[in-house]
Amino acid sequence: MSAQLLLSPTAMAVCVFSILLVPLAGTGLALINSGLGRSRSAAHTLMASLCVMAVAAVAYFICGFAWQGFSGLPSYAATVRGRPWGWISTGHFFLRDVAFNGSGASLAAWFGMLSAGLAALIPIGSGAERWRLRACCASTVLLAAWTFPLFAHWVWGGGWLAELGANCGLGQGFLDAGGSGTIQAVGGLTALSIAWILGPRRGKYAAGNMPAAIPGHNAVFVLFGCLLALVGWTGLNSAGSILFMGVGPGRLALIGINTLLAAAMGALAAAGMTLTRFGKPDASLTANGWISGLVASSAGCAFITPGAAALIGLVGGGLAARSVEWLESRLGVDDPGGAVSVHAVGGLWGVMAVGFFAHFPAGANLNGSRQWVAQLVGVATLLGFVFPLTYGLNCLLNRFYPYRVEPEGERQGLDLYELGAGAYPEFITHTDEFTLG
């Protein structure tokens, strides 16, 4: 789709409505991250969520979209054997070259601003209860202004991953309609970086390095967040499919069904696994399975059958439930919100699932039908380039501006230490002056 091509009135209306739903996905993630943490840092988690959305929007507005661009806009490209490989857009800062007239580029800029914020919300789950608010905002600048737009250009902006089909005969090139890799895996790998840099919470690992259970404080937040996320993800997948895959409004029913089925099967997989293992289903892991199913559905939501979507969600939910335990016990990763398991592992699985299950319209140029190879190249890029990049940038920033809160702040809780007030003041035990005479 050309960057300057105006969408049809129907496609534009549907796309605008879908983008309006995307913030509900962020709201759901914010509630889940808050509910899975302890009550003494609940307000801090939600405050951090609001701040990173704001910081991400501003950073992406300043330079993010200039790096990302859109298919059809000018970009820097390296020529190898006579074939161009785009690596970064040549847009102007502050959206100065975007025509706000219903063009694909204008809607992609709006969608990208929300997507950058959604990606920035993910690491909050892994850094909960010990990540300073200002450091969280500083890390978001790195993500929204550089890491996310760079990979997004390669996938959504006509960059070299999208060109794998035309240049190497690998299916239709790397495909990621709703952002399983571009949003979720990028955010999830950043979450892994943050968890490693911060280290585990105090008391998480006792003698023998066995992880201690630190239950979340509000399962209602968590489960309500899942329902909000479903609505937001339906908009996310629909808008991404229209903007970057050229899908018409007629396929939106399929996208909605696939999104719901993947979430449902992800939740059932996690609930079944915990029921079998512990005798009772675990609410937090079931919620993680639900979100993992949504994450896995995004990449191929417009090109898979409902049966395939159910299978993708089933595997995604099972992977999330097992990965949470494996990361804690084997790698020592303290991830209160399950962000790494849900978004990094689930996102990478969703990317690869496109190569296994995608069915394209008749007449599509499949270029040898090696779609799974293109998807594998994308996964290798995420693990071999994006993860070292985001880890290195955050390590460097941590040296100059320490990420982790002081021990007293962790003991007291981030609500009181950084915000000056708790989320639930009526639950605080009063001291003697309130009980005397």
Summarize this, please?
This protein has 437 residues and is an all-alpha fold. It has 14 helices and two strands; from the N terminus they run H-H-E-E-H-H-H-H-H-H-H-H-H-H-H-H. It has a single domain, classed as Ammonium transporter AmtB like domains (Ammonium transporter fold).
* Class by alpha and beta content: mainly alpha
- Work out the helix count: 14
- Write the H/E string, N to C: HHEEHHHHHHHHHHHH
> At the fourth CATH level, what is the homologous superfamily?
Ammonium transporter AmtB like domains
Strand order of the largest sheet: 1-2
Task: Outline the low-pLDDT stretches.
Answer: 429-437
CATH topology: Ammonium transporter fold
The CATH class is: Mainly Alpha
**How many structural domains?**
1
Please state the second-level CATH architecture: Orthogonal Bundle
Cα separation of the termini? 76 Å
Globular, elongated, flat, extended or rod-shaped: what is the shape? Answer: globular
Percent range for β-strand residues: under 5%
Report the mean per-residue pLDDT as an integer: 93
Radius of gyration: 21 Å
What share of residues is helical?
55-70%
Q: Compute the number of strand runs.
A: 2
Q: Report the sheet with the most strands, covering strand number, pairing sense and barrel closure.
A: 2 strands, antiparallel
